[in-house]
Design a protein that fits this description.
Blueprint (H helix, E strand, L loop, with lengths): L2 E7 L6 H7 L3 H9 L1 E8 L2 E6 L2 H7 L5 E2 L6 H8 L9 H13 L3 H22 L4 E3 H17 L8 H13 L6 H25 L10 H6 L11 H31 L4 H6 L4 H12 L5 E6 L3 E3 L2 E3 L4 E5 H5 L43 H18 E4 L21 E7 L1
Parallel strand pairs: 1-2, 3-9
Antiparallel strand pairs: 2-3, 4-6, 5-11, 6-9, 7-8, 10-11
Length: 418
Amino acid sequence: MVSTNTVSKEEGLDHTLSLLKEGYDFIPNRVRKFDSEIVETRIFGKKAICISGKEATEIFYDNNRFKRKGVAPGRIQKSLFGEGGVQGLDGEEHRHRKAMFMSLMSSERLKVLDEITEKQWQIAIDKWKSMDAVVLFEEAEEIMCRIACSWAGVPLWAKDLELRTMDLSAMIDAFGAIGPRHWEGRRARTRTERWISYMIRQVRTGKIGADEDTALYQIAWHEDLNGNLLDIKTAAVELINILRPIVAIGRFITFGAVALHENPEKRNKVFTDEVGYRQMFVQEVRRYYPFGPFLGALVREEFTWKGYEFKKGTLVLLDIYGTNHSPTLWEYPDVFWPERFSEWDGSPFNFIPQGGGEYDIGHRCAGEGITVQIMNTSLKYLSGKIDYDVPLQDLNYSKLRIPSIPKSRFIMKNVRHA
């Protein structure tokens, strides 16, 4: 049982190397070592407070206590997030921008998304039937790129598909990387922002048309609190904030395929979706497998929680992976068990694979519903609409690599219709 009132300080000048060596387990290791939900450490030469658990999540998403502006390191802004995006906004500015994103998630638009997803899976399977081997991760990211651009209203030529998929993937892959992976992520962001900025200009000048209910149109013509259009670069960053997270679903889909392969007794239940089983399976994939390790925020005003004084301006890291694997929150947390979600209370604070808190006004991922919907459709195809052979391969994944992915990327052979 983790203590609720012990605060520990890790000795040493800096623990950035430990973060690189421990990956997803960096915060969970300290929570266990110090038997505390609050651990003070140092990363990149600065004090950082690591917090974990349901109560920590509730505190972390209190906008009166924390702010996001200025928290993302420059290296992450220049690769993953971009500069000026919704993730780094606070207060009324954040609520206004977030409302624009949420307006894109209407039931009508989600129905369109599902139709696009079905179509793209059918196209992909027709292609796979003639291939000697299919690397699912690579193919899933390409499917997601086509889905993302079609749904967002962004023109995508067939000749550019490989490059656009590669660049959106590289930005995601750069999140926890140093060296070549990070550099490629930065180059990919530069290319992608140039491409999307061009699209925004074309819409604003009337050189290409865009349906009014698409993300391309809505973001191109979005006005800030002062009634001004977003500058071209910021608009591009926000449109990429639609495209990139959808491509990232390719990782969840790949892990979902691993889960189906390693739990064959669950495969038919996923396909037939008896008693909503596919939804439970999808949620367990999102809980069990590593995606985001932690999130950061800065203390807005000094406050005390569990006997610890959080000083203004201090960096606080919320343990995403550890909270989703907490033995105080989840029975048998290291066992893949979809049935656990049959009794889940729906709390926005104990299950946080893409952040916690409320969707509409908080900093929880606006597209989490999109993730769940696309995964549902994708796993329907992988569990019963096609058959395939899974040759001997290394399906292990490293928790030191952020973001993680099975080492073989999940290879399938002899793909055919079921």
